[in-house]
Specification:
It is a single chain. Helix 3 (140-152) packs parallel to helix 6 (185-203). The protein is built from nine helices and seven strands; from the N terminus they run E-E-E-E-E-E-E-H-H-H-H-H-H-H-H-H. Strands 1, 2, 3, 4, 5, 6 and 7 form a seven-stranded antiparallel β-sheet that branches. It is globular, with a radius of gyration of 19 Å. It has helices at 94-109, 113-132, 140-152, 159-166, 170-181, 185-203, 208-214, 220-231, 235-241; strands spanning 7-11, 18-20, 24-39, 42-46, 50-54, 60-76, 89-91.
Amino acid sequence: MEHSNLTIDLRSYSSEARSHHHDYHQLVLPVAGELCMTVGKQEGSVCPQQVAIIPAGQQHDFAAFDQNRFIVADVPAAFTPELERLPSFIALDNVLTQYVTFLHQQLLTNANGQSSERQMLLLLIQLLKERYGENLRFDRRLEAARTYLDQHFHQTIYLKHLSTVANLSPRQLSELFKRQLGTTPQRYLTEKRMQLARQLLEERELSIQSIADKVGYNSIASFSDRFRKHFGHPPSYFRRTGK
């Protein structure tokens, strides 16, 4: 089952070399020290002003020396599938370096809660894609379909209608999604809905029924069932604990 939580926290690593892979994308951002890594066949490091992007399923080796600390973000593959097309190691410009510093400060104080931290993480991902996304040019028909999903996720969306938006057959659209984004239109839509629903639950401003309506579920029962399968907990868990 794919890791379904969009999470961000502070981590340190030992000098013992380790190797693994996971079913979610991961961003590793510098705070202190250096993390030596091999992502696939590419060698590099996370150090001042350089970040690592590890695509879902990619084998990677890593080890750190001396005292170290990094911001590590786990990002569901279906939520931002285009991350796997960014370089494994990229330099941060001055603006992004300052933003990482700000993000670190927010994590230390936890002043605004996890919901705010995830919003800051999403902004960072968007900035990275804008600056280093030369390889993120997708088929215009795919972009038309994805834009429609992003703008109408609160509505009932059928694959047949979505394929009309993209001027493709349903089969062609599904194949294009899988080939260029590594996911399906339905999985992409569900991920968008679930992440927004969790954010709204943690903000505690709307009722669960209102949140279900806002993310495209007319039935609170079907929303709760989908949410439980996605996160392993019912909506009330995040409303109660604010995790």
